[in-house]
Amino acid sequence: MVTVSRTTVAVVGGGPAGVVLGLLLARAGIAVRVVEKHDDFNRDFRGDTVHASTIRLLDELGLGDRFAALPQSRLDDFSLPMPDGSRLLLGDFSRLRPPYDHVAMVPQWDLLDLLVTAARQEPSFDISMGLAATGTIVENGVVTGVHLRPYRGDGETEELRADVVIACDGRDSVLRTAAGLRPRSFPVPFDTWWFRLPREPGDATTALVPAFSGTDVLLSFPRPDYHQVAYFAPKGSDAALRAEGLGAFRARVARLRPDFAGRVDTIASMDDVHVLDVRMDRLPRWWRSGLLCIGDAAHAMSPAGGVGINLAVQDAVATASVLAPALQRGLRGAALDRTLARVQRRRTPPAVAIQTAQAVLHRVVFERAFAGGLQSGPPKLPVLLARWVPPVRGLYARGIAFGPLPEHAPAWARR
Ligand SMILES: Cc1cc2nc3c(=O)[nH]c(=O)nc-3n(C[C@H](O)[C@H](O)[C@H](O)COP(=O)(O)OP(=O)(O)OC[C@H]3O[C@@H](n4cnc5c(N)ncnc54)[C@H](O)[C@@H]3O)c2cc1C
After folding, report:
1. 13 CA: nearest ligand 1 atom
2. Domain containing 129 — which CATH number?
3. pLDDT in tens, 49-77
4. What predicted TM-score, i.e. pTM, was given to this entire model?
5. How many structural domains is the chain composed of?
6. From the alpha carbon of 298, which atom of ligand 1 is closest?
7. How far is CA 190 from CA 2, 138, 215, 305, 335, in A?
8. Parent domain of 308
9. 284 and 271: one domain?
């Protein structure tokens, strides 16, 4: 039995891109249905850095107070450890104009819940949890909807028809594949292993400082009640790391961060250490007739700089800004497709700029670290600039906080 339903915009994927797009389109009065395969947002770690560009957007949307009330911690700067044990302040967010002078660390599920709660206040918004898109409906070469089925268990399948489908289904996008869009992959030298360690009174919480030891790299993000820790090693080392065993892994962490040595025993097994196969890719073409990919579905980002959520949010704002007026004007067919192409033209430059910067970071930090080259200190030029030209610290911070070409909420979405 197949149920057939209809909406104006079908948004597949309830990550940052999908829920922001759903909220904005609903505020324009456009019928929008977001479809998310999981039953809730409360799943494993998937990034929680909310940068100034997103905090400013939330203020513009009238959600700043609710966001500020979420449990969160803040990063005020990022530094590099020097061989003599000192720290070099590399990026200083306090040089930016308040209140957009920090990066907030907020569990992603809290942010998504906040956005969906706001969207539910709009009559034209609808969200279905626990439903997965399995493919596109194509008629005369145009995507006219998606096939849906329960993500877990059996149940009725559904054909959701829409004027336009937006694929926000992340880096393993099913819809992108179904639409025949193939991303171009870029080499990434590392994978990341995520785990938690308890927070203790007196831990530094507002500074981000990577730790280097031998060829190992580690970064810890303070959450309100624990540290979310990322260990970096050359791509493909997961099997070797697990073969070494838990004791060896704990020892690596303790070597990198002697202040964590007393807590590494809380990593109960290697099952607590989750590997992320880091990928960086980008679609040469983000759309085909009736369908557009945004967020990670269009460009999977490296975790370097922690910008993935924010870029996905910015894509969603750009999409709503061009799509809502087009739909309100009644554009369909080739005219509507041209708006999809406009989104790609508008968002490709920031995606390219950030991925290029990430590729440089991969080379000068990670590849050098894995070759043992960071023992003698970080690369000279950025360090000299940060040390002797203090405004450069503000420039580095601005680049991370806002990125290139940040988007603003359209007037009709503001509250
Ligand atoms: C472990 C990890 C750590 C990260 N750390 C950071 C960080 O600190 N800061 C940062 O900015 N970025 C980080 N990122 C990247 C960031 O999470 C992504 O760039 C960002 O979430 C992309 O948003 P998105 O909405 O495009 O896709 P996603 O967040 O991937 O959302 C896609 C959504 O679509 C759903 N979905 C998938 N397939 C289907 C389907 N067929 N049908 C229905 N729903 C579907 C998924 O369940 C998911 O909810 C991290 C990523 C990972 C994996």
Report:
1. 34
2. 3.50.50.60
3. 999 999 999 999 999 999 999 999 888 98
4. 0.95
5. 2
6. 26
7. 44, 38, 12, 14, 42
8. 2-75+106-186+280-360
9. no
